[in-house]
Amino acid sequence: MNINPFVLSPAIPDELFCDRRAESAALIKSLLNQENVVLTSPRRVGKTGLIYHCFHQPLISDSYVTVSIDILHTTSFQEFIKELGTAVFNMVAKRSEKLSKLFVATLRSLSGSFGIDPVTYLPTFDLKLGQISMPEYTLDEIFAYLEKADKPCIVAIDEFQQITKYPEKNIEALLRGRIQKLRTTHFIFAGSERRIMNEMFFSDKRPFFQSATLLQLEPISLDVYTEFAVRQFRNAGKDIAPEAVAWAYQTFDGVTMYIHKLLHDTFADTMPAATCTVTDMQQAAAQMLQQNAKRLQELLAYVTEQQKELLYAIAADRCVQRVTSADFVRRHHLKSASAVQSAVKRLLDLDLITEQHKTYSVSDPLLRIWINR
């Protein structure tokens, strides 16, 4: 069986993991030093893969219990507790009969969620949202349980900025107050909306101010990605033109997920002893765009015409520094600078555009390409 070396899931074998040596070393060093870490990156650049990679290194896996959750889809504090409780049961409690029984004994507020497996006679856990009647109390129980585990725990919360969108008030203060009391449990707060994450952790008016070590993840460099891609093709008796890797990298702004998907697809389509060319890469990109067209169209379902016009204008220019300037407004036939300012705020809230160093761009390069076509 020929294994495709361009793995699309976050759980990538070490030998197929592309670079990130410096970032891996920095993250592992902070975790071993009992620090909480805030990990930020543009979406789809590989922060989840980096976390998985570090969690499976012997320095971490031999000495810590690791838990990871993604809360992007959650809309309330109750849902957050459900995700956290379920992950802790699956990744910590299931490790032994003793830990399973301790979980049952500690999480008394969720007693209705437990059952007994008729074969193993071990506790089972089926948590429903309606059973979380006292989320704060349940959170205290989960944290108390983690502190009693047989090893120190590391909890990675992906898309952590989502808690700012919950209807409940003061969730940041509630979590910060409890987390700072933990002795043997530490956290990775990962997020792709860097503007919100920076406000949460580096504004002196927010509860999480200076409570974590910052690690920023940027796209892997083109040279490193090219060397990696050429090596993997050649190991399989195939070849790829460096120009093909460069085209994918530059077209998709160095975003790991899209480049890896294109390499994955072109690797499968390249016969032994053949070479993947720029044309092959362009055909794979066109197919990927077609496969995602409906999803991309649905992203704009709740965007007003005025907001859409601004989004199209930013997509056309690729990067915009002065989004309210008279030149930009006039050149793209936008209504007014004040109307643009209002639309910018909404598009940022929807994460359709991103702002870094006062420069605006479309958050998803695939969406930008789809708009321009």
Produce the secondary structure layout.
Layout: H1 21-32, E1 37-40, H2 47-55, H3 58-61, E2 65-70, H4 77-91, H5 97-106, E3 114-116, E4 123-125, H6 135-148, E5 153-158, H7 171-179, E6 185-191, H8 194-202, E7 213-216, H9 222-235, E8 239-240, H10 242-251, H11 256-269, E9 275-276, H12 278-299, H13 305-317, H14 326-331, H15 337-349, E10 353-356, E11 359-362, H16 365-372
Helix pairs in contact: 1-2, 4-6, 9-10, 10-12, 11-12, 13-15
Structure description:
The protein has 373 residues and is α/β, with parallel strands linked by helices. The chain has 16 helices and 11 strands. The strands form 4 sheets. The protein has a 5-stranded parallel β-sheet, sandwiched between helices. Strand 3 and strand 4 form a beta hairpin. 37% of the residues are buried.
What is the tally of helical segments? 16
List low-confidence stretches: none
List how many beta strands DSSP finds: 11
Shape: globular
Mean residue pLDDT: 94
* Residue fraction in strands: 5-15%
- What structural class do the secondary elements suggest? alpha/beta
Tell me the span between the first and last alpha carbons. Answer: 38 Å
Order of the strands making up the biggest sheet: 2-5-6-1-7
* Overall radius of gyration: 23 Å
Sketch the major β-sheet: 5 strands, parallel
- The secondary-structure element order is HEHHEHHEEHEHEHEHEHHEHHHHEEH
Helix-residue proportion: 40-55%
